[in-house]
Backbone:
């Protein structure tokens, strides 16, 4: 579903991503891990063009989004994204946070959008917060609403950019549980995370990045028990 | 002490009429300033470098020269070039409107840029196009920063409006001068008109405070 070829990204003179080659199959859950500043988030943000690649190609469903004149809005509508700091719309109620994008860009009625929003909120366990404003929610609740908001667009792929890094420790689990059940439902996902236990349990594949490069790609069992590269072993020693 | 407020009594209706004259052109100038200023603000946050450069230059000219010079330039200097005898009223709304638009554009630009970058990214990630994103997501949040500053700009404009007296426009200020000269009594006339300005500005200030409190409520 996603194919990345020779992806480069520079900010000025700094090369943040160098020669990234990988792909994500439909239904696959990929965990992207690595030290801070290794380019994980930038890589993720290139997939929905929040950062525009300096060179290389990214195909989403066969459509090359580095091609000039490509309809990026259409591609973004197929890709849900969850941010570290939630970025809910603070001036809208939870319900409107969920329905605003579908009502604006998709051909759905208000009733359909609201029914769908109700379903999504109950699936993340927040039916009672439908009329609340984001500022009255806890971090964990905000992130669950943010996940529901992304799902309201019925994306084919979900990107998670360190979804639990800004949360208090006791709220990490409620968010990870939601992501896990989403993974079980067959959603294609790419997750940038520092939660190694979660990556091991949920991911079909680990991508380990360092200094803007993919250093190692492996199945979780393999990666966590016998990583091939020194760099990955060194990293795992520090975090496990 | 030689004070006699009873002397100005016959002139009070004449001076009070100045309130409407002043308010009239200040309100028109505010409207002009707001619309042009909003447009310039949009140019400033756009990605078209040339337009941005022009907008910045426009702003710097109006902020970098005295308002009284701008006013006299429009009233006295422009007719010399264009051959069109511009009225004091038109000069006033034009100068104050354009001058205000420069300040308003900065207020709006700063207000928009103060909105968390993540809001824009979240909207982009959802595939929301630029226009609805600006109108429904960014601007409502920017209003919290913009409205109080805008209120200050209106207050400043109301006070500065007294400068139009130099081009013989019969506003509140000019009427005080006329009455003062007529009676050889300046103290009473200026005190009277000064009090009117003070009340007008205080009313705007209270209005601004109420507005600010309302905006804070949704937090």
Residues:
């Amino acid at each position: 579903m996603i194919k990345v070829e020779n992806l480069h990204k520079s900010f000025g003179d700094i090369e943040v991503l160098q020669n990234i080659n990988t792909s994500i199959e439909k239904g696959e859950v990929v965990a992207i891990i690595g030290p801070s500043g290794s380019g994980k988030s930038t890589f993720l943000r290139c997939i929905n063009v929040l950062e525009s690649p300096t060179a290389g190609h990214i195909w989403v469903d066969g459509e090359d989004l580095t091609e000039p004149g490509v309809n990026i809005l259409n591609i973004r509508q197929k890709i849900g994204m969850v941010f570290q700091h939630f970025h809910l719309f603070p001036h809208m109620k939870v319900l409107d946070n969920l329905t605003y994008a579908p009502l604006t860009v998709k051909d759905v009625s208000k009733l359909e959008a609201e029914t769908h929003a109700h379903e999504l909120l109950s699936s993340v366990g927040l039916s009672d917060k439908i009329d609340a404003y984001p500022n009255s929610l806890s971090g964990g609740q905000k992130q669950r609403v943010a996940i529901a908001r992304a799902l309201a667009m019925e994306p084919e792929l979900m990107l998670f950019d360190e979804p639990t890094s800004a949360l208090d420790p006791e709220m990490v689990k409620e968010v990870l549980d939601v992501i896990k059940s989403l993974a079980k439902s067959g959603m294609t996902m790419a997750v940038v995370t520092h939660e190694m236990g979660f990556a091991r349990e949920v991911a079909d594949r680990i991508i380990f990045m360092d200094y803007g490069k993919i250093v190692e790609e492996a199945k979780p069992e393999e990666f966590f028990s016998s990583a091939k590269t020194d760099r990955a072993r060194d990293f795992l020693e520090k975090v496990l | 002490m030689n004070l006699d407020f009873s002397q100005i009594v016959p002139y009070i209706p004449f001076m009070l009429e100045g309130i409407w004259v002043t308010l009239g052109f200040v309100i028109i100038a505010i409207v002009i300033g707001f619309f042009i200023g909003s447009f310039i603000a949009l140019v400033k946050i756009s990605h078209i470098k040339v337009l941005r450069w022009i907008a910045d230059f426009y702003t710097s000219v109006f902020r970098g020269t005295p308002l009284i010079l701008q006013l006299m330039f429009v009233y006295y200097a422009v007719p010399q070039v264009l051959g069109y005898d511009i009225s004091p009223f038109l000069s006033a709304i034009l100068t104050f409107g354009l001058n205000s638009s420069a300040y308003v554009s900065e207020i709006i630009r700063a207000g928009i840029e103060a909105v968390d970058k993540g809001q824009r990214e979240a909207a982009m990630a959802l595939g929301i196009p630029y226009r609805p994103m600006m109108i429904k997501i960014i601007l409502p949040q920017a209003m919290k920063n913009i409205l109080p500053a805008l209120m200050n700009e209106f207050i400043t404009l109301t006070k500065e409006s007294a400068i139009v007296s130099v081009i013989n426009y019969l506003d509140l200020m000019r009427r005080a001068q006329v009455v003062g000269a007529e009676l050889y009594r300046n103290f009473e006339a200026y005190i009277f008109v000064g009090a009117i300005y003070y009340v007008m500005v205080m009313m705007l200030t209270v209005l601004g405070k109420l507005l600010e409190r309302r905006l804070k409520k949704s937090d």
About this structure: Chain B is about 80% helix and 0% strand.
